[in-house]
Amino acid sequence: MSPDNTPDITEDTSEMARHCPVCTTVFTVVTATSRQVFCSPTCKETNRQSKPIQHTCPACQTEFTTPAGQRRIYCSDECQTTSRTSEDARENRTCPVCEGPFEALRTVRQIYCSPPCRKDAERRRDQTRERRPGPLARRDPSPGPTAGAATAAKIRRPSRITSTGPGT
Predict the structure, then answer these.
(1) Which of 4, 14, 27, 76 is positioned for an S-S bond with 39, CB 3.0–4.6 A?
(2) Residue 52 contacts residue 65 (beta carbons within 8 Å)
(3) Is 0.70 surpassed by the pTM of this model?
(4) CA-to-CA distance for 75 and 59, rounded, in angstroms?
(5) Helix (H, G, I), strand (E, B) or coil at 22
(6) C-alpha–C-alpha distance, residues 108 and 91, integer Å
(7) Mean pLDDT for the chain?
C-alpha cells in the first residue's frame, strides 16, 4: 500500500503499470502516454524535498546547496545585501521635474531626485486634473452644475403601475 493509502496493483503485465521510485509501489496510470512518475502526491513531494541543488553565489562565487523547493540565489543575507547595495546595483537617472541627474538603486522605484520635486510633480498633476472637463460636461454642453440633472428630468420613463383587478 502506498503512503496515501492507494491500493497496490500487483499485476505488472500491462504497459500502464508503473513502479513508484520512492516507495516501489506498483500503480496504474490512466493512459499509456501519461507522464505520471509517482504513485501519490506524498511520494512526489518526498522526492522533491530530498534532492539538493547546487548553486553558485553571484556575490562571493561560493558554491552552496539548497533543497529543490527553495529559490535562493545568494548563499547568505549578507551577500544579498552587499549585492543589492553595491555600485553595480546603482544607476544614473534624470529627474523629470528639474531634469537634474541623480543616482538610485536598480531595485528601488524612485522617479524624482528629492521630495520637493515629487511634491511639485503631484501639484502639477492635480492642477491638470482640475482643468479637465468632467464626465457630465462632455455629454451635455449646456452650462451650469445642474445641467445633467435637468437633462435627466426631461427623460420620460414608462410607469410601472399595474392593475390588480377590475375596478382598481
Answers:
(1) 27
(2) yes
(3) no
(4) 9
(5) coil
(6) 10
(7) 77
Cα–Cα dist 73/82, whole Å = 13
Grid cell 522617479 — which residue? 111
Grid cell 503512503 is found at: 3
Q: Of 79, 85, 80, 81, nearest to 104 (Cα)? A: 85
Which cell numbers in the block locate residue 158?
414608462
Q: Is the pLDDT of residue 91 over 80?
A: yes
Question: Do residues 107 and 84 touch, judged by C-beta distance below 8 A?
Answer: yes
pLDDT (0 to 100) of residue 122: 93
| Residues 112 and 97 sit within 8 Å (Cβ to Cβ) | yes
Instruction: Show the beta-strand stretches assigned E in the chain.
Output: 17-19, 26-28, 52-56, 63-67, 90-94, 101-105
Give the C-alpha separation, 39 to 23, whole Å: 8
The SS3 assignment for 55 reads strand
Q: Would you state the cell numbers that stand for residue 22, as one nine-digit string? A: 520512492
> How far apart are alpha carbons 130 and 115 in whole angstroms?
23
Give dist(CA 3, CA 43) in Å, integer: 7
